[in-house]
UniProtKB/TrEMBL annotation:
GO terms for molecular function: oxidoreductase activity. Belongs to the short-chain dehydrogenases/reductases (SDR) family. The keyword Oxidoreductase applies. This is Short-chain dehydrogenase. Keywords: Oxidoreductase. The lineage of its organism: Bacteria, Pseudomonadati, Bacteroidota, Cytophagia, Cytophagales. It holds the Pfam family adh_short. It comes from Anditalea andensis. It comes from the Bacteria. SUPFAM superfamilies: NAD(P)-binding Rossmann-fold domains.
Length: 234
């Protein structure tokens, strides 16, 4: 029986790289995006390279609880994923003291609340199955304060705390939980900046790190992955 992976925000960047990494290993794919055109393009690309796997896509805005739950319910009609990657997120630069009104709510709902609700939707079944792997895609901004980090950094600090608590709750049920905290990665979030490409990490490097953690024996778990550009943080 084939295994399955659910990756939120899987049409671009790190999420897309993780999907292609696991698809190449024969995993069925479950993902979501706000944009149906991006989901259709992803499906076409996956079918071209991995015609034998199942691909399930769902249009959802994960800043909205009702759409997070709708996505989870739709997936549960098909499977309980073996791997859950909470990857969807949004970055809006700004300082706490004067960032635009609404930034806090949007980033907290997208970067933290969606992870909370989606994870809770699957934990009961994973516990009953006594198996699974949950990755939370954080950021080094959840470890170190940065200028103009604002609410983004707050949300990632909170996500790290959530993931640590989840690890403690689920370890006795043979469910692995890992925090992934990448530094600057060449994704759409950095479009338009005048910084050489070699100063960034590749999304595929983060995907390879996730796969390496997943591939360990049942006796071991990587609790935290911190991965930075070779030339240092941006």
């Amino acid at each position: 029986m084939s295994k399955s992976i659910l990756v939120t925000g899987g049409t671009k960047g790190i999420g897309r790289a993780i999907i292609f990494k696991f698809a190449a290993a024969g995993f069925d794919i479950y993902t979501c995006s706000r944009h149906i055109a991006d989901l259709n393009e992803l499906t076409s690309a996956l079918n071209k390279h991995n015609p034998s796997i199942k691909i399930f896509t769902f249009q959802a805005d994960l800043s909205k609880k009702e759409e997070v739950i709708a996505f989870a319910d739709a997936v549960k009609t098909e499977t309980i994923p073996d791997v859950l990657v909470n990857n969807a997120g949004v970055f809006l630069p700004g300082a706490i003291k004067d960032e635009p009104d609404g930034n806090f709510e949007l980033m907290m709902h997208t970067n933290l609340f969606s992870v909370y609700h989606l994870t809770r939707a699957f934990t009961k079944e994973m516990m009953e199955r006594r198996g699974g792997y949950i990755f939370s895609m954080g950021s080094i901004a959840g470890l170190t304060a940065y200028a103009n980090g604002g609410t983004y950094a707050i949300s990632k600090w909170a996500l790290l705390g959530f993931t640590k608590c989840l690890r403690q709750e689920l370890k006795d049920y043979n469910i692995k939980v890992t925090s992934v905290m990448p530094g600057a990665t060449l994704t759409a979030s950095w479009e338009g900046v005048d910084i050489p490409e070699e100063r960034f990490m590749k999304a595929e490097d983060v995907a390879d790190s996730v796969w390496a953690a997943y591939s360990l024996s049942p006796n071991s778990v990587v609790e935290e992955i911190v991965i930075r550009p070779q030339l240092g943080d941006l």
